[in-house]
Amino acid sequence: MARKQARRRKQPKVRKFKMPTIRLRPLFTPVLALLLIAGTYELSARLLDREIGALELSGPFQRVSALQIEEAISGELEAGFLGADLGHIRNLVRALPWIDEAAVARRWPNRIAITVSEQVPAAIWGDSGLLNVRGELFVESARHIPAELPRLSGPKNRSADVAKRYLSVREQLIPIGLDVRSVRLDDRGAWDMTLTNGVEVRLGRRNVDERTNLFIGIVADLITGRAGEIEHVDMRYSNGFTVGWKNDEKSPVSEPDSTQQEMLALRDDR
């Protein structure tokens, strides 16, 4: 009987309630993406509104001043640090006279850097134009003409051809003590040049390369020691050339295949 009373009473059953599981990872990714987009937009908007704090200008500034560059691009700078069109700024700078090339870049947090190189005049074109080292006409009417530059002339669309011939001839004459003062191409296509010693070389319209090579290979050496007596050299013959002396004499210097009379008659252009 005592055992029955000591027997433990059964404990009442406790009901357990399970909370529903919420998966946060699928929700976290789109929320984070939205926050990033919103933050990027806000940052971009602030950067676009940010004014350009400074211009960094570097270059020789011998022919073009920093003030000229600032004035040329002032309208574009109003777009702000990120809003400024760097390509357009570069084109504006390159359009300035005497500017050869320009590089434009952003420098964080609020600076625009511009580096320029200026044109190097290599020759005078016509009366007052200037050609660069590539034979390009970059100034049509210069105020100050360097007297030491050679003079080249011809049709406007042939400036590169004239410059190319000048550079080629000069490169071959300098080793033998001669140099070129001017090269001319007329509207008919006839070439002539003047050396720094005053001797005029007439090349004409036909076979100009062959005549130039003949002059450089043979005639140039012949006239080096007598330049003071020579007015011009006429290369406009099929098989020879003549020398015009300052005392008004004209004598054939080379007649490989003909007599003097035949050679004078064979001049094929003027």
Task: Give the arrangement of secondary structure elements.
Blueprint: H1 2-6, H2 25-49, E1 54-58, H3 66-77, H4 86-94, E2 99-107, E3 111-118, E4 123-125, E5 129-131, E6 137-139, E7 151-153, H5 159-173, E8 180-185, E9 191-195, E10 200-204, H6 208-224, E11 230-234, E12 241-245, E13 250-254, H7 260-265
Parallel strand pairs: 1-3, 4-7, 7-8, 10-11
Antiparallel strand pairs: 2-3, 4-5, 5-6, 8-9, 9-10, 11-12, 12-13
Q: Overview of this structure, please?
A:
With 270 residues, the chain is an alpha/beta fold. The chain has 2 domains: 52-118, Ubiquitin-like (UB roll); 123-265, Rossmann fold. The chain is 33% helix and 24% strand. The protein has helices at 2-6, 25-49, 66-77, 86-94, 159-173, 208-224, 260-265, and strands at 54-58, 99-107, 111-118, 123-125, 129-131, 137-139, 151-153, 180-185, 191-195, 200-204, 230-234, 241-245, 250-254. It has a 10-stranded mixed sheet with strand order 6-5-4-7-8-9-10-11-12-13. Strands 1-3-2 form a 3-stranded mixed sheet, with helices on one face. β5 and β6 form a beta hairpin. It is elongated. The chain starts with a helix and ends in a 5-residue tail after the last helix. The model is unreliable at 255-267 (pLDDT under 50).
